[in-house]
Design brief:
elongated; five-stranded antiparallel β-sheet; five-stranded mixed β-sheet; single chain; GIY-YIG endonuclease; 4 domains; about 35% helix; alpha+beta; about 450 residues; Nucleotidyltransferase, domain 5
Length: about 450
């Protein structure tokens, strides 16, 4: 009926690591009926810190079978049984990946003894395997080895079965329960209350500290996506185990979700937003003079030390901006970094390019228009309200820009009318501009996705 499992691995998440040991206990709800154990050769060196934790060395697994060599045997031990493990999602994701590599499709119902313990035995200080076992009087004879940890999980599961007076285990096994995809310390009731709307969400640890900030057009769907087997970064056990609560703030529009996420990351510095803290991809437009004295443009990722004429949050927005300038000033798409074809650009064939790409148009005449285009980059920007959906049906959102500079965002009632800058100011909460937010604003001014631009004189 149940296959109670523990594995040891070369690292913390399934995408880049392999299984080094597995233990499986068959349990019928009353007693253990059979057991299986094997070291597994992961086909790579075992890191020293893993050896320090588990005691498993590369030499120990050198003559052990590879997973694919015993995949059919392991599958037979698991098939048609409920998969039970402590922090089940992690063990399950590793085995599912190993089975996929071996060409075996495996999918089964799962139970997590961390989540079950939290409901059946609430109030404990910790639900880690070691602490939980200690609280229940279960001795782990060989800690951090698959056999010893699996045996302890069997004893814990047996205790949970006997103490489950309210049918927690039966409910968790229901087809659409969703229990097993969630982090072990996150209450399902909290996940169920998440909205399917635009906004920013916060992952909190046991002490209430924000450890991650994210944005979404559908908060519930996005968060569920973090915890599925396909979410590479989110299968890392360290962050999953630290998530105890989720809070959120609705934004109405995706634009405000982008802005608020950026501002909150810089206000809170969450530990798992490392990529956004230290490196935000920007796309910029640079100018240079080629060896034939033609002024040219290039659309590139902004690298440290460079100073582009203007920056955007995506390549597409930078290209859209550049195409507008090409059309406005009759520039050559090839010399503007938008086409790479040899010979004359495609636009020359249609008559919209005067042939600077092949010297048909002289550089002096062409460069005058390029310089006018460059000057336009630095002209005083628009004063505009970007109006989008609100958090409720009777509300709208607004992002306010004055002379091209971001001022803040806010919300106003549908019955209100934004007719001028001063009226719009009443609806926003002023906030500090930064380069990331300005890039987002530039992108939406170029490509106003989901918002209406209300221009002010």
């Amino acid at each position: 009926m149940y296959a109670i499992v523990d594995i040891e691995t070369t690292g913390g998440y399934a995408e880049n690591h392999r299984v080094t040991e597995i233990a499986i206990y068959h349990y019928d709800g009353i007693q253990v009926t059979d057991k299986f154990h094997s070291l597994i050769n992961p086909g790579r060196n075992i890191p020293s810190f893993i050896t320090g934790l588990t005691g498993i060395t590369s030499q120990m697994v050198q003559n052990a079978p590879a997973f694919e060599d015993i995949a059919e045997e392991i599958y037979d031990w698991l098939k048609e049984r409920v998969f039970v493990a402590h922090n089940a999602h992690v063990d399950y994701s590793f085995l599912k990946k190993e089975f996929e590599e071996a060409g075996i499709a495996w999918n089964t119902k799962k139970l997590c003894t961390v989540r079950l313990s939290r409901k059946i035995i609430p109030g404990l200080n910790s639900y880690s395997l070691g602490r939980l076992a200690e609280s229940l009087g279960v001795k782990i004879l060989d800690r951090h080895r698959a056999g010893g940890d699996a045996q302890a999980t069997v004893k814990i599961f047996d205790i949970l079965m006997k103490r489950d007076q309210s049918g927690v285990i039966v409910k968790a096994l229901k087809r659409n329960s969703g229990e097993t995809i969630l982090p072990p310390n996150l209450p399902k009731e909290e996940f169920d209350k998440l909205p399917a709307k635009e906004g920013v969400y916060y992952f909190l640890d046991a002490r209430g500290n924000v450890i991650y900030v994210g944005k979404a057009v559908n908060i519930k769907k996005r968060i569920a996506g973090h915890f599925t087997g396909e979410a590479r970064e989110w299968n890392r056990s360290n962050i999953r185990n630290e998530i105890h609560h989720i809070t959120f703030e609705l934004t109405g529009s995706e634009l405000i979700a982008f802005i608020l996420e950026s501002q909150e990351i810089r206000r809170l510095w969450p530990k798992y937003n490392l990529a956004q803290k230290y490196k935000v991809e920007e796309w910029g437009i640079d100018d240079y003079e080629d060896r034939n004295s033609y002024l040219r443009f290039a659309v590139n990722v902004v690298s440290r030390g460079t100073k582009p004429l203007i920056t955007f949050s995506s390549k597409g927005d930078a290209w859209n901006f550049m195409w507008d300038k090409v059309k406005e000033f009759d520039l050559c798409p090839k010399l503007s970094g938008l086409q790479v074809a040899k010979g004359l650009c495609f636009s020359h064939q249609s008559g919209s390019c005067k042939g600077a790409c092949q010297g048909v148009e002289k550089e002096k005449k062409y460069n005058k228009r390029v310089q006018k285009a460059i000057d336009s980059f630095f002209e005083q920007g628009q004063t505009v309200a970007m109006v989008g959906k609100g958090r409720r049906p009777d509300e709208k959102s607004v992002v306010l820009v004055e002379n091209g500079n971001y001022l803040g965002f806010g919300f106003f009632d549908n019955t209100e009318n934004i007719s001028n800058l001063e009226t719009a100011r009443n609806f926003i909460k002023p906030s500090k501009d930064n380069r990331v937010v300005q890039n987002i604003v530039n992108s939406y001014l170029t490509n106003p996705k989901g918002v209406e631009l209300v221009l002010f004189n």
